[in-house]
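In practice, a research group might receive sequence data for several interacting partners and want a quick structural hypothesis before committing to experiments. The following worked case mirrors that situation: the sequences arrive first, and a predicted assembly follows.
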Amino acid sequence: MPELPEVETVRRGLERVLVGRRITAVEVGRERTVRRTSREALVAGLTATTVTAARRRGKYLLCPLDSGDELMIHLRMSGRLLAAAAGAPRPAHTHVVLHLDPATDSSGELWFVDPRTFGEMVVFDPDRRDVEVPELGRLGVDPVVDGLDRDTLASLLAARRGRLKAVLLDQHVVAGIGNIYADETLHRARLRPDRRADTLSSREVGRLHGSLLEVLEEAIEAGGSTLDDTQYVDPEGRHGWFQVHHLVYGRAGQRCLSCGRADIVRSVEAGRTTSWCPRCQR
DNA sequence: AACTGTCCCTGCAAGC
DNA sequence: TGCTTGCAGGGACAGT
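A structural hypothesis for the assembly, expressed as tokens:
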């Protein structure tokens, strides 16, 4: 599940394999991937343009083009971007293929592969962003791109009456956190996922702030988390290894690695499976 | 504001 | 063994 650290790793990969390259042709297999506009709009918007940068905001990848338009890519659950040699055999569920120039030995194509088809690609005019990709304007603070200081986090939490995990997952508050990093952050901060956000002491806010930045930083450093089922890899095919540092995610029923004296429990918060230690987290 | 449920889709695992 | 069913998950959205 690509979350902020995985998307950031993909962004860095795109700087190596896509930025500065000219898109000579575009193939769209599945129309669903370009559902926000159309196959024709993506092909017309990308063909004969050069990608000038690779940016990220939350889980959104944003690539400005020399045409003045911008390419937005969201990987959602199972999307992957893979650099490949021109003409290489494509894996199942390859929905979009960008042909790049100059073609290199290792990459003449960039594939968008997405088994569950929740991901999407769209080319939009930045001047019409609020109409064409309105959710970008509603995204909350990105802890890495914008920075997030402790006082800002404190006021965001104070304004919320919902439960802590739901607040962390809300992309309008803090952008980029998904299920894995919400659970790992809350564990490190020793806070229950169902704590009301506006009841944290300033010491607890400090722990949450430190844990959040630490988890994201370490996960980016590790190239993200590659789980058994999703097989997330970066554009150059490398998997992440932050999963070996997971303390609670996916460990329900197993002994807590922090206290060694309680088992990780599973609950549901904000409609998402949640794993946490009832002894460490309060 | 905040909660729940629904939808989209596929792969995998569990149950029959 | 082979089928069916259930579940997971990001995020928008509708309904309460």
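Before designing any experiment, note the following. Chain A has a mean pLDDT of 91. Residues 1-3, 59, 74-78, 116, 118-119, 135, 169, 171, 178-179, 229-230, 271-273 of chain A lie near DNA strand C (CB under 10 Å from a C1').
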